[in-house]
Amino acid sequence: MAGLTAAIQLSKRGHDVSVFEKSRGPGGRLSSKRVTDGAVDFGAQYFTARDAGFRRFLDEYAGPGTYGHWPARFVFQRKDGSRETFPQDERFVGVPRMTAVSRALSAHVKLQAGTRIRNLARKDSTWDLVTVDGDRLGPFDRVILTVPPAQASDILLESGLADLAGRIERMAGSLLPCWAVALHYREPLDPGFDGLRCEHPVFFWIGNNTSKPGRPSHGQWWMLHADPDWTREHLDTPAEEVFRKLKEAFSELADIAAEPDDWLAHRWLYARSEHNDRPGSLWFADHGIGLAGDWLSGGRVEGAYLSASDLVSAMVD
Ligand SMILES: Cc1cc2nc3c(=O)[nH]c(=O)nc-3n(C[C@H](O)[C@H](O)[C@H](O)COP(=O)(O)OP(=O)(O)OC[C@H]3O[C@@H](n4cnc5c(N)ncnc54)[C@H](O)[C@@H]3O)c2cc1C
């Protein structure tokens, strides 16, 4: 979201921008995995659009048909098991999957996927980007890094920019890991919520993916996100064992006897930001290097947009 936002906003101002992405497609932590009857959202579960500019940006560049309101029953569960409803807020999701938004945004930028950047190399007053395969891309007048802080730090250190890496050292470990497991049930379940954020030894979040708008309804897909501490303790546990443990904990929490007939798992090393700092973005004008991303603007999808917008303003100034 941060990379696409910065690229679109700078292109709009007449700059020639190229985006390089290590994965096969854009989206990053806006992530959906295909399943037989559609797709399940593995990363961000929903997003807010409190900032009017974010809403306008989405309407103009992603299109109003690519996202919609998720009118779900959101519940917060405390350590002692007591539950209360979530604060009122408009919550949005991509339709028919989270990546519908990033796909649509990426149509406005020059994107080269499957390209992992290892370091930046100075060439006179410009930068080349060097890929892990040793290819050199460029020259570019300015470079924006919108990767998570640990990866930004690696790129800066590999580029001989230890002083800049030092500026983000404190934040480098600020993204928490998360095991995500999707379970499919042939018959719909009703544990009394569609989304549950909890203080729980195993879970951080449980959501009914099928209750989101535009999702097919052959049975139900449930998304389970493990608590960061639980994930840290199970980082090297095989996916099948993680699936079994989360499934059993879900059956107990939701008091259900049904067994899932399909499942998928993904381990996020960098999921949500634990920082509430909001420097917005970092612009190192002397080097022509900028940093943006959710971790610089309070975390979350909307934070990634706000951070990139903040950086573009600083660069244009
Ligand atoms: C499990 C989970 C649940 C979440 N739940 C929510 C939620 O409910 N609501 C919410 O608002 N937010 C949620 N988030 C957070 C939200 O997804 C992020 O805040 C937001 O998507 C971050 O966007 P970004 O552009 O800053 O970073 P990213 O999406 O991480 O983008 C960084 C991109 O850089 C690419 N990259 C990394 N290294 C390189 C390299 N060397 N070369 C080239 N490309 C590289 C990555 O592949 C990625 O595409 C969740 C995240 C996870 C993982």
From TrEMBL:
> Where does the source fall among the domains of life?
Bacteria
Q: What is this protein called?
A: FAD dependent oxidoreductase
Instruction: Name all Amine oxidase domain ranges.
Output: 92-308
- Xref: Pfam families: Amino_oxidase (PF01593), NAD_binding_8 (PF13450)
Q: Which residues form a coiled coil?
A: none
One GO term in the molecular function aspect is: oxidoreductase activity
What are the top taxonomic ranks of the organism? Answer: Bacteria, Pseudomonadati, Pseudomonadota, Gammaproteobacteria, Pseudomonadales
- Where does this protein come from, organism-wise? Marinobacter santoriniensis NKSG1
